[in-house]
Amino acid sequence: YAGFVVAGSIMAIPLIRSLRLSPRSFLYGLIPCLAAAVVALSLVQPVRETATQVWSRAVSSTDSEDSSVRMHLDMWVVGAHIALDNPVLGTGQETYPELFPRYRDAVLEPSRASAFMPFRPESPHNVYLAIASGAGFPALAAYVAVIAGFFYLVVRALKAARSEWRRIALVALLAAVAGHLVTDTFMTA
Predict the structure, then answer these.
(1) Distance of CA 43 to the CA centre of its chain
(2) What letter does residue 186 receive in the DSSP assignment?
(3) What sign has the CA pseudo-torsion 145, 187, 78, 123?
């Protein structure tokens, strides 16, 4: 959901410009359309149930006491400790499952560590922590440099774009990658 919000926000910029609307008039037009869509969709039973589930899950992701959120945070803590203990070369690709039990017992509270006893987490559920723990901080820096280079080149192409469609396509590309980068914070490739 966070990735969708980031991508949608980035895509709104060229849409507003291409429609030659001020941000305020765009919002005034968007709000009734969204309200009508919500009302229409809420009347259809399967859509209403799905929307309720999506809303409940989105709201629960802000509750740090939610079991899924707590487990993700614990896996991040373990991944961060692994990365900090092995900052230059990491521990090797795909070694998180083997190292997790040792770090789990050392860095998590006993009650949190015992919650993981029946599980074998395959990753920290965060691409950036997975890279740092598996290959070290220099590899993470290289990954971030590639991403930064991509953004630099696309923004430069965006400034030079003469066609409105090319600008929209480049912004869509930026939005898609930005949304992907946000979702990488909560999952593993």
Answers:
(1) 31
(2) S
(3) negative
